[in-house]
Write a structure and sequence with these properties.
The protein is mainly alpha-helical. It has 2 domains: 2-127, Cytochrome c-like domain (Cytochrome Bc1 Complex, Chain D, domain 2); 142-227, Cytochrome Bc1 Complex, Chain D, domain 2 (Orthogonal Bundle), CATH 1.10.760. The chain has helices at 2-14, 37-43, 49-63, 83-94, 104-107, 109-112, 115-127, 142-152, 154-157, 177-189, 197-202, 208-219. The protein is globular, with a radius of gyration of 17 Å.
C-alpha cells in the first residue's frame, strides 16, 4: 500500500511537467553514449527477476502493466526493448543527460533503487511480450517511407527496426507512431540531448513529408511473432 501511495503522489507531481521541457543543467554531459557511472555498473550486474517485477510496478503507472504504452504516444511501448537500451536511458535520465521531467521523479534511486534495480527492471522490460496492435500513421505515403528508411535508417536500426542491444540502438519496430514523431522532432531540434549525433545531423535534411512517411513506415514494422503477445494478453505478474 505504501508503494502505491508513493507512486500516486509522484504521478500527481509529474503530470504538470508533461507539457514543458527542462533546460539543460549547467555542466550536464552531452555525449550520446559516454557510459560510466550507473550505466556501466548496471551493465555488469546479473539481473534479479523478482526485483525486476517489483521495480517495474513504478514504471507501470505510465507505461501500463503490459509495458505497451499508449497509441496516442503519450507514453511509449517499452515491452521487448533491448536491456542495454533501457539501462542507458534510465541512467541518462538519472544523470540529467536526457531531459524527461515526467519520468525523472519515478527514476530516482529513492523510488526504484540503485544500479541493481536498473539492471533488474531493464531485463524484465525486455522479457515482456510486445503489443501486436501499436499505433500507426496514416498509411498514405509508405513507398516514400520505405525508401527513406532503406537509405537512412537500416545501418543502425536494422532491416526490420530491430535495433542492436550490443550497440545500444533501440528497437523501434512496433513503436507507436505518435511517440516516434515526437522523439524524432526532439532529436532533430536538439532537445533529446543524449541522441546519436550522427542521427541528429542525418535527419536535418528531412522535410515534414519525409518525416511523416518514414515514421509511418517504421510504426508498421512488426516484431517477430515470438516477441508478440496476444491482443488480449494481460501481465500475470500483477494483480489486476
Amino acid at each position: 500500500m505504501k508503494r502505491t501511495i508513493i507512486t500516486a503522489t509522484l504521478i500527481a507531481l509529474a503530470l504538470p511537467a508533461m507539457a514543458q521541457d527542462t533546460a539543460a543543467p549547467e555542466g550536464a554531459p552531452s555525449d550520446w553514449n559516454q557510459g560510466g557511472g550507473e550505466q556501466d555498473e548496471a551493465l555488469g550486474l546479473v539481473p534479479d527477476h523478482e526485483n525486476g517485477i517489483y521495480t517495474y510496478e513504478v514504471c507501470s503507472a505510465c507505461h501500463g502493466l503490459n509495458g505497451w504504452g499508449l497509441p496516442d504516444g503519450t507514453f511509449p511501448q517499452i515491452a521487448g526493448q533491448h536491456p542495454n537500451v533501457a539501462i542507458k536511458q534510465l541512467a541518462d535520465i538519472r544523470a540529467l543527460n536526457r531531459d524527461n521531467p515526467t519520468m525523472y521523479p519515478f527514476s530516482l534511486p529513492q523510488e526504484i533503487g540503485g544500479a541493481q534495480s536498473i539492471a533488474d527492471v531493464a531485463a524484465y522490460i525486455a522479457s515482456l511480450p510486445m503489443n501486436p496492435d501499436n499505433g500507426v500513421g496514416a498509411g498514405d505515403n509508405l513507398e516514400l517511407g520505405a525508401q527513406l528508411y532503406a537509405d537512412n535508417c537500416v545501418q543502425c536500426h536494422g532491416e526490420q527496426g530491430e535495433g542492436s542491444n550490443e550497440k545500444f540502438y533501440p528497437r523501434i519496430q512496433g513503436q507507436h507512431y505518435e511517440y516516434l514523431l515526437r522523439q524524432y522532432q526532439w532529436i532533430k531540434e536538439g532537445k533529446r540531448r543524449n541522441a546519436n549525433p550522427e542521427m541528429v545531423a542525418q535527419i536535418q535534411k528531412f522535410t515534414d513529408e519525409d518525416t511523416a512517411a518514414v515514421l509511418d513506415y517504421v510504426s508498421r514494422l512488426k516484431p517477430p511473432a515470438e516477441l508478440l503477445g496476444a491482443p488480449d494478453w494481460v501481465n500475470p505478474d500483477f494483480d489486476w
